[in-house]
Amino acid sequence: MPPAIPIALLALAGFTTGSGMRMLDPLLPAIARAFEVNVSQASAVVAGFVLPYGLVQLVAGPLGDRLGKVRIACLAVLLFGLGLVASGFATALPGLIALRAWSGFFAGAVIPLLMAHIADAVPYAERQVAISRFLTGMVMAQLIAGPACGMVAEAAGWRLPFLLLGGMALAVGGLLAWRLGPALWRRPEENGGGRGMRAYLELLGKPSGRWLAGLAFFDGFLLFGGAFPFIGSFLIEQFGRNAAEAGLIVAGFGLGAFAYTRMARPLLARFGERGLLTLGGVAVAIALGLLALTDRWEAVAGLQVVLGLAFYMFHGVLQTRATEALPEARGTAVGAFALALFLGQSAGSLAFGLGMAVIGYRGAFAVAGGGALALAFAARANSVRR
């Protein structure tokens, strides 16, 4: 077991990698102008980050189980930071895309491994609360990374956000290395890591493992990749909001998610895991249904806060369950959950993007709401079996 590391430092590592994902939201037009391409062509830098971020789960989990979860996460944060700093000096778009792929690959290893480390260190009864505190970093990245990078870029150009965030990642990685001390270079005793990639087969060989992977996939399909990414466009096209206003309204989701990180303990004590699965899933379904019906943007703003809180009530239980799906190889189990979520998100973005042309925003939100309701009861059924 590595030395005790404050959850605040682990959350800061999550903040840096989460910011690395969201930082490009306001920077694409400036990058397109700098390299004399259109925004559609410049958007390849987004895909360049996201695909490696998801696929690295295949190797990061088994590697963390074998060589030490915090150890691998620490090295990943440092290499992620180097990629960001180098991105600030890119002279051509293909080079920037390659550096974003490098950054995405190492960023993707950080949060699942640190979550698995927390699960190793914290008893199950306290685990969801500890993970919620850790997720504060990721939630704050969703809230402030885009606006902060936009303001910096407006004042000093698109390269400076890469340099500043890269420097922050290197500093956080350095702090993690310092806290690890000699453990950074010392391979831990094996405790399930010897399974390697076979741990995935072992996980999927268990009914509970297959259920969890399926729930994560449809969680990503219906919500992360399905309904949520299109709310900003809905505000612009249906309510005439501009991009900045839509961004501020959508940020309400982060406020709701932050509220969850502060309220996780009393919510868990009051409702228990099964109650949170049901209450969170049903609340997401109702909020999406109201989103499909509303004719006021102010209502959309309020519903965003509700969606953030309700989603993390539901999703937080699934994440915590993932840490216990294969206790002897937690890095692999959490990585498998993250990979299933990513695959669902990718498929959902494509499916809902195509579906919008047929049923429109409101129809898509209604479909996602119905799916979320079914998902909530499927998750509850799985909870009863467990």
Proportion in helices:
over 70%
Sequence stretches where pLDDT stays below 50 over 5 or more residues: none
Instruction: Give the tally of β-strands.
Output: 0
Classified in CATH, the superfamily of the largest domain is MFS general substrate transporter like domains
CATH class of the largest domain: Mainly Alpha
Q: How does the helix and strand content classify structurally?
A: mainly alpha
Task: Please describe what this structure looks like.
With 386 residues, this protein is an all-alpha fold. The chain folds into 2 domains: 1-187, Growth Hormone, Chain: A (Up-down Bundle); 194-386, Growth Hormone, Chain: A (Up-down Bundle), CATH 1.20.1250. Helix content is 83%, strand content 0%. The protein is built from 17 helices and no strands. The chain has helices spanning 7-22, 28-34, 39-42, 44-55, 57-67, 69-87, 93-107, 110-121, 124-156, 159-180, 198-204, 207-227, 231-239, 243-250, 252-293, 297-322, 330-385. Helix 1 (7-22) packs across helix 9 and helix 16 crosses helix 17 (330-385). The longest helix has 56 residues, at 330-385. The relative contact order is 0.14. The model has no long low-confidence stretch (mean pLDDT 86). It is found in: Cell membrane.
